[in-house]
Every structure is written in C-alpha cells, then in structure tokens.
Amino acid sequence: MIGAPLRRREDLRFLTGQARYVADLEVPRMLHAAFLRSPHAHARLVGIDAAPARSAPGVAACLTGEELHRHVRPLRAPSRMKDYRPTDFPALALGKVRHAGEAVAAVVAESRYAAEDALDLIEVEYAPLPAVAEAPAAMAEGSPLVHEDAGSNVLLSRAFAQGDVETAFRGAAAVVGDRFRFHRHAGVAIENRACLADFDAGRGALTLWTSTQIPGIVRDALAELLALPAQSVRVVAPDVGGGFGVKTVLYPEEIAVAVLARRLGQPVKWVGDRREDLLSSTQAWDEIIDAELALDAEGAIRGLRARVVADVGAYSIYPWTASIEVIQVVSFLPGPYRVPHYRAEAFGVATNKAPMGPYRGVGRPVAVFVMEALLDRAARRLGLDPLEVRRRNVIRSGELPYRSPSGIVWDSGSFAECLERAAEVAGYAGLRQEQERARAAGRRLGIGLGSYVELTGVGSAIPVSPGADIATGTEGATVRMEPGGGVTAIFGLACHGQGHETALAQVVAAELGVKVDDVRVLQGDTGLSPHGTGTYASRSAVLGGGAAILAARAVRDKALAIAAHQLEASAGDLEIAAGVIGVRGVPDRALTLAQVTAAAYAGTKRLPKGMEPGLEATRFYDPYLGTASNATHLAVVEVDPSTCAVRVLRYVVVEDCGRIINPLIVEGQAIGGVVQGIGAALLEELVYAADGQLLTATLMDYLVPTAGDVPAIEVHHVERPSPTTLGGFKGVGEGGTIGAPAAVANAVADALAPLGIEITELPVTGERLFRLLAARR
Q1: Domain 475-621 grouped into CATH 3.30.365.10
Q2: pTM of the prediction?
Q3: What percentage of the chain reaches a pLDDT higher than 70?
Q4: What does the pLDDT read at residue 469?
Q5: Domain limits, the chain
Q6: Listing from the earlier edge strand, what are the strands of the sheet with 233-236?
Q7: How high is the mean pLDDT of the chain?
Q8: Alpha-carbon distance 294 to 718, whole Å?
C-alpha cells in the first residue's frame, strides 16, 4: 500500500463542489464582521468616531482598538534568540498604524453588506508620520521608528562563522560575488483567509472555525489571550483552500472575531476579500543579500561569506517571530556543497509594510538562488561547465551524515545522484549542443541548474523557527478499529491540499493489514484530535506518518493478542492480510477483523486475562533532529530580447523525498511547487511605493503563473529512505518552490551570458529584463 499511486480520495468532494470551507459555514443567529483598514502606512490615530456606524441599520457592534484592548491584550511573539526585540501586535491598531491595510476598527452586522456599508460611516483622524519602506533606510541612523518601544528598527541580528574565512578568500584563485535582491512575494492561496467564532456562554466555551494550517497553535494561543482553559477552546480547520505557509500565523482577525463573538453572545463570521488578503496577510522574502564565494583554480569551494538584510514588515508574527525567514537564508546558504569556511550575518528589520511570514520554502528559495548563481558565475570565471563545478563540490553519499557549516546535520541524501540523474534524463550534453546551434541562429537559449537540500520533519531538537518559544517537534495520532472492522485515524494535522486523507490512510492500512478504503482520516479539529500543531514545514508525512505507525502498531498488536486468545494460538504465529487475522500456513484457522473488534468491545469475558476492552491507541512521535530531502532542478528557457519575454521550454526535477508513500501525491507536490517557483522567478512581486502604499493589491497587478506560462514538468525520483525517521519518510511539500527560482534565473543568465548580463534580482520581470538589455546596447 505504501508506494501505490492511488488517486486522492478527497478529490471527489472538491471536484463536485461538496467541500466545506469557512465561507460555506452557516450557524443560527450568525453575524458578519468587516474591518476598516488604514489608508496610511504610518500614522498616529488622533481620534475615531464610530457613532455613525453604530447607528447604521443592521449593525450590532463597532469596536476600535482602544475598546478591543479592554478585552484582549496585544499579541507578542517571544523568542529565546539573543538580540531579539519583541514587539506588540494588537488585533486592532492601538495609538498608531504601522502599515497600509492594518485594521483600525471592526463592524459587526446582520449581513456582510451592512457591515461593509457601515465601515464608510466611521470617521478616523490620522496624523501621518514619515514612512520607511526599505530595510536599508530603516537601519540608518535617525530613521523613523516603526516601534518606539523597541528602540530600533533592527528587531533581530545574528552572526556565526566556521573556519577561517579571511584566509580562505586571500588564497583563492577566483572570487565571485554581488548584491542580490529577492523581492517581496504573496502566498495567494485560492481561498482567502476567513474565520467564524461561536461562544457558548453556558459552557464558557469558544469554537473557532478558521482557514488555518495550525489549529493546535491557534487553540493554545487563543486560550491564553482570552483567559480560557485550553479544553474550553476548540479550533477547527475545515476544508482549507491552500495555505503555503501564509496560514501558519495567528492573525488579528481571528482574535478580534473571537472577542466579538464572546462579547455579543452570537456567532461572528469574517471572510476576507482578495484585496484584504494581499494587504494584510503575511508576505515573504524581500531580502538583500551581499554574498561572495571563493574557489581554487580547480573550482573547489574555499569559502563563502554573506550579509543578509530582511525586511520583516511592521510586526513580528506569532508564533514564528521576525526570525522565520532571514535565519533560514543564512542557515541553508551553503546548500548541498562542501563549504569549509563560512561566515554570515543576518538582520531582520522592521518597516512600514505588511508583516513578513513563512511562505513555501521559507528562506531556502532565496538561499538557493544566491548560492546557485554564485556557482554559475564561478564556472564562467574559471572556464568550466556549470555542471562540472557542482560535481566538484557536491557532498557525496559516503560523506553522510554531514554537518553543514551552519550546524545542520544532513542525515541522508542523494545530492550527487540527483545532480547526475537530472543531467542524464534532460540530455545535458545534447542541450548544450542545441544551445550552440540556437546561438548561431541568433536565439537566446539558456540552461539552468538548481540543487538544494532542506531539513524536513523537524523534531524537538531544532525549533522550526530559530528561537521561537513554541514546541513543534511532536505530533500525535489516534488509531481506532471500529466495530465492523473499519478504522478511524485522527490527527492534529490540518490538510490544505497535501492529500492526507489518502497518504495517511495508506500508512495506517499498511500497518494494520486492511484496505485503504477501510481507513477514515479525521484531522484539523482540536476537539477530536490528540495534541498536535498542524501542517507546515514539510512535517506531516514524517511526524504524522510516524505517529500513525506507532498508534497502528499498538492497535495491531492488541488485535493479534485478542485473535490469538480466540484461536488458541500464539500471536507470533498470526498474520494480518486483507482484513483477516489467521494462523500462518493454516488457512482455516482465521478471524475477520470484524470478529476481532466484536470481541474487543464485548467486554473482558472474551479477552485475554488482564486486557481492557476497546481497540484504539494514541501515540506521539518525535523524530528529534529531522531529516534531509534534496533535489536537482534543470530548466531550459528562451529569452526574446525584442519583447523581453522569457519562455520556459522544459523543466526537469529529480528529487529524493525518502520512502514514497504515494507517487501521484509526490508528483503533484513537486509540480505545484515548481509552478509557484517559476512565478517567483519571472512574475510575482509585491511592489510598494516610497510612502509604503502597496501598488499591486489586485491580481491584475500581482501576476501569478497560468497554465500557459509553464511547460509539462518532468518529475523523477531517487528514493533513499531516511535512516532516522519511522517509515523512512522525508518531507516533500516545499521542494518545488525551493529549486525553481534558482534554476530559472540561472537559465536566463545563461541565455544572456554572451551579453555579459547577470541576474541579481528576482523576479526577472519584463521590465527588469528590458533595463538589463538596454544597459548593454
């Protein structure tokens, strides 16, 4: 069952319109919320007159930040990281606004229309303040402070070094480097954020349905903020239309809606629109990287140094803090290569933009873009093929486990194997010959490589976000064999497109010896599940799958013990297959699982002495360090200098995600990630004006890839099971987005190399390409 390319069972309800998103939910007496958002990026709140809105038809309440503050304190993301400056993040602006789109008031009414109309009646007096919209300016002496209490716009800084970097550079035959910029990015899930809160005053219990990836984290945080026992707060993630990391944050709207429902004694629902989503959801990347790579005459890496400045926006998000992105960049910059000497500095800087948060790949797309660009430049400087430079530096299987210069341990991998396989399946030598012919004909054809390694399924030894004061290293699963022989498996995970209902059912079915169709998977409901934190950071297969294996094995062992008692046999002589437990080699001595479960729930009379009734188990799994996934991406592009258009002609992925549970799901994850990575390389950019105004607040301005922008993506596998995780599983959800920007950017640079053009900024939009070409004319 594990390894079978089963079609996703959950797809039927999505394809037939039977899915239930937050926007589809209706409960009796439900009210609707809308939020008034600041038109200014930075301004003092002089006064708010909400009286006209309160008297509008159908309005039940209108709250300002000062009024909401009486019911709930601002959110604060703590960190154990040295030199981290914590900041308050109010659910509604208190005293001043720090980015355009920040909520300053909330209206609750009988309909969404009435609530939206009432927003126009609220009168807000702002005293505009100088805005700072770029991190370097925010770091400068005398810059306007986003948070006066912090005393600086630099909310975090970190530096580390391995070896003697200065000596490595002094003795180098070649040094390549530049200033790179990865511009700001939006997650653009197909479902905007939404939530519905219902407070039962009689029980003192809150239920929040929300489009989130982290129901367990949201539950725990809301319980603390609202001074409720954790068992009195239930958070449900129903069907969720994509997340990509954007929905791994506790948002102000979730807090405000929960407070409003409690205060009004009626359910309150909020569904954001696309403009709100682009204005106020967390954004990604927006980093400036000064990096240099030193090599010897043979192309072997001697040293690497970097300085990374990340624009973290107006607030440090909960629970990941402002460190989530920039620390990942410097941690993963060396990639799957031997880097004997390494030094890096990282800074997270507050500006008057929407907060930065995790997005698919979290820092690694930036790190891989920079490192792979440096390798291509080194190849050109030394007169080597880009593939050859990588061959001379890539970590070999015999060197694993390998401690990276940033301290991460790669437990396993196939770095060199994926590189060679990508070259083989793409026909690399033939592509180079085709490129020469194209150049002779006046065409700009380019070939780009992007290799990476990522840490997935992180356990308790390493925080998902460095310094974050939250435990994310374990996940629980409950497996219950039902009367009749069916199985229910319950997880604290929260699927938003990963195919858990199929993949996790395959894991459970394989352990129990039942059909996949006999396993029902429940998830995303803190009222049902064992403790867990959710789905993010490529962790669900590793942690959820590991917990499922442990729980299913416990159920299996008990079922075998019951069957052995019934059959008067030894449990060691029994086997389970196709829902039947039988004595090995004796076909007529067998029981169906339905018969075994009947005995399990019938009472102690039919059970072995001392065994309690029932047939279920809850287990938790901690992989401790986590496990490495890796891949090589290869892109072929054509650049038309006359139109500045870039066409991706071919795309190859060779990935190693360990033991594959379901190849179709793995391929879907890889393809989806690559599409988003191509968007990051060529199209997607959140553009802010100097005064902090977002200029790309619609999908007419913020461009995402369409089917016409991407070729058929070829996905190949090198299957190396992890030696450190139960089941041998590794994570796969983010890899496509990690490798694609580098591969595409390198292909564009390769196409334009005869013109002396290097790619230092992503995305390579038509406008950027026009300017690069114009400078060479």
Answers
A1: yes
A2: 0.97
A3: 100
A4: 82
A5: 11-129+192-240+247-280, 284-396+405-460+624-776, 475-621
A6: 59-64, 103-109, 31-37, 268-271, 194-200, 205-210, 233-236
A7: 97
A8: 31
